[in-house]
C-alpha cells in the first residue's frame, strides 16, 4: 500500500530525483485509472512530437481516452503538462494540475491535490492528500508535502513541509 513516509533516510533513499522509474507508471490491471490517465497523456504527447497525418489521427483517440479517464477520476491534468517519468497518482480523484506546472521524475501525488499556476516540482516529491501549491513557486528534490498543506513559497530540497501556510517541520 502506498503512503507518504516521513522517514526520508532509509526507504526513500533508493528513489532517484533525476532518473525516472518507468515501472511506477505501468498499467497493472484493467481498472487502474491513475496509470491509464497518465498513459493517455504520454501517448498523446509522443504522437504530437512525432507529427504527420497518422500521428494526428491517432492523437485524437488519446484525447478521447484522456477525456474518459479524466471524467472517471474527476481530475484535470492537461494533455500538454510537462510530467517527468515515474509519476504515481496513487488515488487520482480530484487532482488539479495547471497546464504550466512542471512535475519532476518519480513524484507521487495523492487525491485532491491542486497545483495552481506554474508550480515546478523537483524530483521525488511526495504531495499529501488535499495539499494546495499556489504558484509561482518551486519545490526542491526529495521533499515531502504533508496532507492539506498550503504551500505559497519556494521549498528547499530534502525537507518535509506541513501546515497552513506550509512550514518546514
Written overview of the protein:
This protein is of the alpha/beta class. The chain has a single domain, classed as UDP N-Acetylglucosamine Acyltransferase, domain 1, CATH 2.160.10. The chain is built from two helices and 15 strands. The protein has a six-stranded mixed beta sheet, with no helix packed on it. Helix 1 runs antiparallel to helix 2. The radius of gyration is 16 Å and the shape is globular. The protein starts with 32 loop residues before the first helix and ends with a strand.
Q: How many distinct domains?
A: 1
pLDDT < 50 runs, ≥5 residues: 1-10
Number of beta strands: 15
- CATH architecture classification: 3 Solenoid
Number of helices, counting only DSSP H or I runs of 4 residues or more: 2
Radius of gyration from CA coordinates: 16 Å
Main sheet: which strands, in order across? Answer: 3-6-9-12-14-15
CATH superfamily: Hexapeptide repeat proteins
Topology as H/E string?
HHEEEEEEEEEEEEEEE
* Beta content: 15-25%
Helix share bin? 10-25%
Specify the biggest β-sheet.
6 strands, mixed
Average residue pLDDT: 90
The best one-word shape is globular
- Terminal CA distance reads 25 Å
Query: Strand pairing plus helix content: what structural class?
Result: alpha/beta
Output the CATH topology: UDP N-Acetylglucosamine Acyltransferase, domain 1
CATH class: Mainly Beta
Amino acid at each position: 500500500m502506498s503512503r507518504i513516509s516521513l522517514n526520508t533516510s532509509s526507504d526513500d533513499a533508493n528513489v532517484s530525483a533525476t532518473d525516472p522509474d518507468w515501472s511506477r507508471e505501468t498499467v497493472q490491471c484493467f481498472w487502474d485509472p491513475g496509470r491509464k490517465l497518465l498513459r493517455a497523456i504520454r501517448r498523446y504527447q509522443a504522437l504530437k512530437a512525432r507529427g504527420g497525418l497518422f500521428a494526428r489521427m491517432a492523437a485524437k483517440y488519446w484525447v478521447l481516452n484522456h477525456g474518459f479517464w479524466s471524467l472517471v477520476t474527476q481530475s484535470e491534468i492537461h494533455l500538454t503538462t510537462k510530467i517527468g517519468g515515474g509519476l504515481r497518482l496513487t488515488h487520482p480523484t480530484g487532482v488539479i494540475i495547471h497546464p504550466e506546472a512542471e512535475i519532476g521524475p518519480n513524484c507521487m501525488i495523492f487525491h485532491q491535490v491542486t497545483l495552481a499556476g506554474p508550480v515546478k516540482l523537483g524530483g521525488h516529491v511526495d504531495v499529501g492528500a488535499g495539499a494546495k501549491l499556489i504558484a509561482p513557486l518551486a519545490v526542491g528534490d526529495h521533499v515531502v508535502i504533508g496532507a492539506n498543506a498550503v504551500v505559497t513559497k519556494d521549498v528547499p530540497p530534502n525537507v518535509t513541509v506541513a501546515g497552513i501556510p506550509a512550514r518546514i517541520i
